[in-house]
């Protein structure tokens, strides 16, 4: 029982750990993109 | 493969071996570090008193030492091309990229085989292994193992030519790929060194495995060498 | 975005603009798919010899399949990058390699946990375990090369990916050609009806999960490419202004 729980638990943790790490990085990149777009708009005015 | 391919291959290998023949830098440094590796293992494993472990230990040490010093050979033979932008001259020459790869492969393999000759004797002495029981098979396994190692090594060394982390990365990238070669070669060698082995059937099996691996690795190396190096 | 003609660069590759809803979708998708796989496994009958521990198989095998799939996709992307200069191929290769590391970790953790119960040891240096470990190590090396390898890293890593792909048939066929304690590949076709359905459902769910994670990871690569594009445009615009 412990083995099964450990195995399944690890897989869930690994997958969601990865999703959250990548998601956070995506969020930072999106913010940077927005900033760049704003600056580009300002250069046109 | 055309005649000019082989001509360029031999030219490039000959160039590296001639440079080596004059300075003997790589041969001496490789030979010395190989001998030291064997000695270190000999000290570290000196408590292994079980006689049955002898052939396996001896074979393992032989191939581990070969692996480490092969890395030195790769770094040195390709490092030469970094000096004075020699690699650019080589790439601008009419030599086909595949011939550059084959030439380097030949040069590295021959250097490694020269050192391995010394290593075999050293291992035989320090581990009391019957290294010359089957000289023909041993020569074949040494050749195939060396080729398999060098086939991948030349590609990765060439790619790392301009990299800052060259030394650290070469090991990290190369070792996982060559472990099957190391495994097969040391299993075959262990069987040959074992006086109690009933027959050489395992040797034949591992030689077939090595042959297949070498063919695949060399073909792969010939295929990817050009795009990998063209970025330089 | 309406840019003056002088500032537009028709030759630059245009990466699709990512959305933050992608992250939420990925979370939701991942949860749903993993939950589906768990349901399938819970419904599956208990195996007579090993009992509950055998159910690790329903996660372990799909993870192994995804390790091999990731390697294959990484190699494919690497070929496109090396021989056709495809930036998209390179982005796909990197994303696939990371997923390979992730699912490889899952295989290498779930396997020994099952092995302890089945064989009494966590690890054995037999053909399939060794070749799987090597494959995982090559993918780790790929990711390391990309992060710390410097400018020549992409080509080097691409070459590594191709050598890693050679390991795939070795991993799969190793149990057939070498005397091995690991279960044979034929085990799947011998599963009972309840187990077979659970297995295929789990495999399908995990494959779906792989696509969800790939989509999320690629979004990061595409966002980075877009940032580079915009920085270039911004530099040009500011230069023109001054």
Write the layout of secondary structure elements.
The complex is a heterotrimer of chains A (45), B (232) and C (242).
Chain A: H1 2-44
Chain B: H1 3-23, H2 25-44, H3 54-79, H4 86-92, H5 97-126, H6 135-159, H7 166-193, H8 201-230
Chain C: H1 21-43, H2 57-84, H3 87-119, H4 127-148, H5 153-177, H6 193-241
Helix pairs in contact in C: 1-6, 2-3, 2-5, 2-6, 3-4, 3-6, 4-5
Query: Radius of gyration of chain B in whole Å, from Cα?
Result: 18 Å
Largest sheet of chain B: none
Flag low-confidence runs of chain B. none
Oligomer: heterotrimer
Largest interface: A-C, 29 and 47 residues
Approximate strand percentage of chain A: under 5%
Please tell me the total number of domains of chain B: 1
DSSP helix fraction of chain B = over 70%
Number of continuous helical runs of chain B:
8
Strand content of chain B: under 5%
**Silhouette of chain A:** rod-shaped
Shape descriptor of chain B reads globular
- Protein structure class of chain B: mainly alpha
- From the alpha-carbon coordinates, what is the Rg of chain A to the nearest angstrom? 20 Å
Largest beta-sheet characterization of chain A: none
The percent of residues in helical segments of chain A reads over 70%
Overall pLDDT of chain B: 86
Q: How many strand segments of chain B?
A: 0
Question: How far is it from the N-terminal to the C-terminal residue of chain A, by CA?
Answer: 66 Å
Concise structural overview:
Chain A is mostly helical and 45 residues long. Chain A contains one helix and no strands. Helix content of chain A is 96%, strand content 0%.
List keywords for this structure.
heterotrimer, A: 45 residues, mainly alpha, 96% helix, rod-shaped, B: 232 residues, 8 helices, 81% helix
């Amino acid at each position: 029982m412990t083995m099964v729980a450990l195995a399944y638990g690890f897989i869930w943790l690994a997958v969601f750990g990865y999703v959250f790490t990548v998601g956070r990085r995506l969020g930072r990149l999106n913010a940077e993109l927005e900033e760049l777009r704003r600056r580009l708009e300002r250069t046109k005015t | 493969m055309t005649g000019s391919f082989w001509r360029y291959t031999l030219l490039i290998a000959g160039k590296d071996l001639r440079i080596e023949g004059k300075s003997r830098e790589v041969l001496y440094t490789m030979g010395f570090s190989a001998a030291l590796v064997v000695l270190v293992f000999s000290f570290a494993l000196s408590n292994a008193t079980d006689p049955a472990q002898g052939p396996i230990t001896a074979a393992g040490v032989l191939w581990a030492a070969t692996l480490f010093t092969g890395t030195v050979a790769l770094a040195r033979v390709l490092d030469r091309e970094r000096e004075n932008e020699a690699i650019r001259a080589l790439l601008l020459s009419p030599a086909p990229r595949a011939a550059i790869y084959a030439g380097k492969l030949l040069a590295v393999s021959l250097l490694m085989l020269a050192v391995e000759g010394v290593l075999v004797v050293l291992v035989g002495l320090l581990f009391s292994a019957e290294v010359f029981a089957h000289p023909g098979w041993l020569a074949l396994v040494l050749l195939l193992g060396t080729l398999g190692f060098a086939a991948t090594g030349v590609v990765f060394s060439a790619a790392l030519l301009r990299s800052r982390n060259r030394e650290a990365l070469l090991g990290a990238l190369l070792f996982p790929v060559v472990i099957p070669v190391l495994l097969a070669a040391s299993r075959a060698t262990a069987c040959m060194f074992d006086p109690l082995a009933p027959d050489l059937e395992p040797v034949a099996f591992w030689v077939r495995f090595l042959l297949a691996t070498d063919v695949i690795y060399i073909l792969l190396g010939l295929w990817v060498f050009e795009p990998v190096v063209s970025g330089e | 975005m309406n840019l003056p003609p002088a500032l537009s660069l028709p030759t630059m590759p245009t990466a699709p603009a990512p959305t933050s809803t992608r992250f939420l979708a990925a979370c939701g998708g991942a949860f749903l798919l993993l939950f589906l796989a768990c349901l399938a496994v819970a419904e599956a009958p208990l195996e007579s010899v090993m009992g509950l521990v055998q159910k690790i198989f329903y996660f372990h095998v799909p993870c192994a399949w995804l390790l091999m799939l990731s390697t294959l996709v990484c190699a494919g992307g690497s070929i496109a990058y090396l021989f056709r200069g495809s930036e998209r191929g390179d982005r796909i290769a990197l994303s696939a390699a990371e997923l390979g590391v992730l699912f490889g970790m899952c295989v290498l953790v779930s396997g020994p946990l099952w092995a302890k119960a089945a064989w009494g040891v966590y690890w054995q240096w037999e053909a399939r375990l060794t070749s799987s470990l090597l494959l995982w190590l090559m993918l780790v090396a790929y990711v390391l090369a990309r992060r710390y390898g410097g400018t020549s890293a992409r080509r080097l890593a691409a070459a590594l990916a191709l050598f890693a792909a050679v390991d795939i048939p070795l991993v799969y066929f190793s149990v057939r050609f070498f005397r091995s304690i690991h279960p044979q590949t034929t085990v799947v076709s011998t599963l009972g009806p309840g187990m077979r359905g659970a297995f295929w459902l789990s495999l399908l769910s995990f494959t779906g999960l792989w696509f969800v994670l790939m989509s999320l990871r690629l979004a990061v690569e595409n966002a980075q490419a877009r940032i580079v594009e915009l920085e270039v445009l911004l530099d040009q615009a500011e230069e023109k202004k001054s």
